[in-house]
Write a structure and sequence with these properties.
This protein has 311 residues and is an alpha+beta fold. Helix content is 38%, strand content 7%. The chain contains 10 helices and 6 strands. It has helices spanning 58-69, 109-115, 141-150, 153-156, 168-183, 185-190, 195-215, 229-248, 260-270, 281-291; strands at 3-5, 8-10, 49-53, 77-80, 127-130, 135-138. A hairpin with a 4-residue loop joins strand 5 (127-130) and strand 6. The two termini are 35 Å apart. The model has no long low-confidence stretch (mean pLDDT 95).
Length: 311
């Protein structure tokens, strides 16, 4: 995975021994905000911003989804990193569709050190980049999707609001629960390095999945018939569950397909206009099974499972 230390790249895997075998996710460090206000340091403008993403990454996936459902593809450009994250972290290809079209960099960590030459921390996706000021606006996916949800509406005319004011407290509360036990829960299980930490994470994960399964009984989305940000934050984890997390992260008490409500819900979201094209099975499987050498040292990428989402 690696990280930057005062602007220098360090090729070191995630360290858990300081946390008794537990994986602790580092918080994002860029929290600037694009605003509809033209006097803002980062005003909403056509063509000014670029989104660096990995289709394999669930945090990137939610940003790609909002770029799609808010019709921002012609407003904000986007490019992909390579699926394999190896000794240099996220990489760009030297040519082709995944080359860096903005700065011509070879590695994503160069984006970070351009924004802050003394940056220390993990180099993560998504990254929202300001082409004009040559800096990172934001690398926190939950904030990026909220900017996409609201700050470009006057340009696109797309008024569909996935974070409605009347539901915000309830959405925030459910987001916190889903992040802790499901979105990040699969990683806490997969990156655990002691048996008890792993088991605690898996039990908590499936208790949370049980709760969401019950919540979806008799309703289409997490908030009834209203499709919200909370659904799009949960979806990227669920769509990867049987394909990757069940085996690779050992979250194997049950498959997603063993939960009738959760499976139906995930299938329905996958059929939402444009969402199928945001889900890249090749990137997803290649990244997880090939990149995490401490979990899968042979780097063999399994052929299965055969899923039913594309039917």
């Amino acid at each position: 995975m690696g990280y930057l230390l005062k602007g220098k790249w360090e090729d070191k895997w995630n360290v858990t021994h300081h946390n008794k075998g537990a994986f602790v996710r580092e918080k994002a460090k860029f929290h600037n905000w694009i605003s509809v206000d033209k006097k803002s340091v980062f005003p909403a403008e056509v063509g000014r911003y670029h989104l660096y993403v990995s289709p394999a990454c669930p945090w990137s996936h939610r940003a790609i989804i909002f770029l799609t459902i808010k019709n921002l593809q012609n407003i904000i450009s986007m490019s992909l990193v390579e699926p394999h994250m190896l000794e240099n972290g996220w990489e760009f290809a030297s040519a082709g569709n995944t080359a860096d079209p903005i700065n011509g960099f070879q590695y994503l960590h160069q984006v970070y050190t351009t924004a802050d030459p003394e940056y220390s921390g993990r180099v993560t996706v998504p990254v929202l980049w300001d082409k004009k000021n040559q800096t990172i606006v934001n690398n926190e996916s939950s904030e990026i999707i909220r900017m996409f949800n609201s700050e470009f509406n006057h340009i696109t005319g797309e008024r569909n609001n996935f974070y409605p004011e009347g539901l915000r407290d309830r959405i925030d509360s459910l987001n916190t629960f889903i992040y802790e036990y499901i979105n990040n829960g699969v990683y806490r299980a997969g990156f655990a390095t002691t048996q008890d930490v792993y088991e605690n994470a898996v039990v908590s994960l499936f208790e949370a999945l049980d709760a969401i399964e019950a919540r979806l009984s008799g309703q289409k989305y997490l908030f009834g018939d209203r499709l919200t940000e909370a659904d799009w934050r949960l979806f990227p984890t669920l769509i990867r569950f049987d394909v990757v997390y069940y085996s690779h992260f050992k979250t194997n008490l049950y498959r997603l397909s063993d939960y009738p409500n959760l499976f139906r819900y995930t299938y329905d979201l996958f059929q939402f206009p444009g969402i199928r094209d945001t889900t890249d099975w090749f990137h997803i499987k290649q990244h997880y099974f090939y990149s995490h050498h401490t979990i899968n040292p042979t780097r063999i990428v399994p052929l299965g499972p055969i899923h039913n989402f594309d039917t």
